Amino acid sequence: MRKVFLFMDTIINKVDAKGRVSLPSDYRAMVKELSTEIVCYRSLTSPCIEGCLEDLLDKLATQIEDATDFFSETQDNLTNLIFGDARRFTFDSTGRILLSEKLLKHAGITDTAVFVGKGRKFQIWSPENWEKEEQRIRAEVMQNRPVLKREKEEN
Amino acid sequence: MRKVFLFMDTIINKVDAKGRVSLPSDYRAMVKELSTEIVCYRSLTSPCIEGCLEDLLDKLATQIEDATDFFSETQDNLTNLIFGDARRFTFDSTGRILLSEKLLKHAGITDTAVFVGKGRKFQIWSPENWEKEEQRIRAEVMQNRPVLKREKEEN
DNA sequence: TGGTATAACATGGTATTTTGTGGGATTCAA
DNA sequence: TTGAATCCCACAAAATACCATGTTATACCA
Asked: Which of A3, A4, B35, B61 is deepest in the core (most CB within 10 A)?
């Protein structure tokens, strides 16, 4: 069993007429060690699909519980948005998943999907949207070098 | 198991037509004790490739999670930038890795690679870029002697 | 200390496996 | 029975493991 577990790299795969996509082999190999399925949902902030292992959503649920009130509107909203949208996707013997219409539409994906590793999770973009996003990020990071220490307090 | 674990020295190896390079035997011997693969990505600040063990990125992932909010733009930007670019490279029985086009291009490497140890990580340069970089560093250190104490607070 | 034998390494080429992708066939539910 | 989802098979391209050889560095012995 591997010690670390990170989604990495940027991989471009085709989406066929049925809506099937190969999960990049790297991702698959990792996922397989723990499960046979991944969870996908529409990103809350970007026109893309997000994917991860169910574990992560479990952690997120705990975080939300800790950070917000049980009866609060925020907790309601967050849980609705994420868990109301998320779904499990199992991959077949060749390693493909069948993405839903809803997800594809939200990401503007037709025949090509760009998988972008994000550590504990990953994103799936259309080539056009990803190009824009990548430029945006690089521009922003060029301006302000990221700082990790003490950012929370400052915000 | 060794106590210390540092990439050191500067080693020049050839890159063949397929993009294969021998990992310096010193590096390999260390890496082998923990893993059969290394992670490489484009340096954020220089025209070179950086490499390290997956552990280091795992630590970084945790740091990012701790320092930023799950839904923040900062976390999004950072994780995309770092993990979207990184990739695992396993070395074969002779100790070579196959560098990707993207990485080679970013570093301007064609047929020769310069490995430079940097402690927990290392860098891979083209001979031309490395020469420039080395001069730059030496010049800078001549002007301002490095200080270790209290640098963090001043920044 | 010098010379030789030995082992380790870098590097070139070849064979094998993996992976992505297309097209049916089969099952399940509406 | 029809449409959608799932499974299975097949092929081509690419990634990866394996084998072989010249060269360099290391160890050993006189």
From this structure: B61
